[in-house]
């Protein structure tokens, strides 16, 4: 199963023509090239520091959030990235659902199939689950996104990688930020940055409250982050990272049928209200990293971390009490043979222990216990990376990683028998990439990589038999990725990238629901899928006052072989992913301190379930925002204002894939407002 011949031929012909024309124009304008001195961007998410244009995979770099952003979720940070699609940003009991080239689209809650990293420490657990409710946009600096499957770099569940970095402290300062808005939105933030000789520290505290657009949609959370950096000398660096998040309430209004949406968009599902669905979360983490330059051509890095998470969730059919310990160690050694070649080797050891108890939900109160089990996931990974330039303009990246995984389930509820069990997997994953510079302003790249993804502990424990233990019918999914593209700069005003990719997967993990357990997600393996796609990203500087970005993503993701006892899904579109995505942003900055920004998105139609009989219409959203900077000696005052969904579009912030009873839809807020002020003192 592939894209229709005429479509794929047209895409490749246009791609080849653009590549030829761009290369020809660059070669015939040497004077332009000699004056092209755009700032190079260095990235590290590929586990080696490289110039972004020299990396033979699709990588996006994102600037820190702006003052005028609402800073309600990380969606605001990453949504304008080609190949990235985000849903569920208004149901904080389910968390933001992020997919990169389709990886992660199956998640019932949280993030699956995408590796999340903060300051080099994994936020994703070794089984592939990721929650970012402990990451506040106000604490973030730069962000990098790898849009290719890279299990060779990061192991299990690395269909893409999002690497966040916290703010850097350039000089000591103190800052408070107060904001409020529609649907009971309130946010209070305080930041303190200290820079003194060889020591820097940034501390961040925030509290967020939201009544929500729908009924039974309350949410509030408190978050603390701290990063201490100590450089005893030029060759050594120590980082200590602390994080704590307490979210005592995040209500879940549930999915609605289309008739219910048309009757009242604000309503919660009646059963969700009766069962008081929602969650509370408490999480803390401590991390320590050490890096040392052994010699000019040798360096090493060591990192250790520990995370605890206590989760209490109420879903319509059950109450879940989960206590998690997650800890790990990683280390690496880098040897630079010369300026054109380096080798890096390292390891990742990660351990996850979940203590799970499930009870019946008796109108929001614990009933009888139905599951009591300990779930453990161990992942040991060892990797080798080599980057070298055999020719002046050719850069080659080679990577190989071996992962050994062991999963254990210990059944403590023995009334219905002992459902304890264990499973083991091992995988070898390569990455091969070539990047060739046609000129100082244009390069072409091509890469081959593989990925694999085990079912998460939550997915394994979602057993359609209703018994405890794991669903042993689930197997890991695997992926093979082929990718080619161009990266370039033009006229000292434009940075652009174009990527074509094809991903073939086996045993794709797909969610479904059954009548016996409404609103509970179960999982099955599809035979195979094929994903063909095109991604275009353009960042441009129009003049000293205007800049912007344009992104387009085309996704033709289909089941290749997927037949069940009841249905044949072959050649159907994978649900939950729009075929077309368009994003644009225009920013204005005046010398007077005024800043304005507008974002416009078009999300194409998509399907809600495997049979492709329920189609979700396309929609468009326009957001505008602005701020003004007033300076008084060492003080800065920044009032800001934003309007979300200015066009008052009626659309859905989440689609519950394959939901039983047609309850696919979670309505998004209509037009809404926020505003506030930031006060900063530079010490």
Automatic annotation (TrEMBL):
Residues 1-25 form the signal peptide. Keywords: Cell outer membrane, Membrane, Signal, TonB box, Transmembrane, Transmembrane beta strand, Transport. Residues 217-646 form the TonB-dependent receptor-like beta-barrel domain. GO terms for cellular component: cell outer membrane. It is found in: Cell outer membrane. Its main location: membrane. Belongs to the TonB-dependent receptor family. PANTHER family: TONB-DEPENDENT OUTER MEMBRANE RECEPTOR, TONB-DEPENDENT RECEPTOR YNCD-RELATED. This is TonB-dependent receptor. It comes from Mangrovivirga cuniculi.
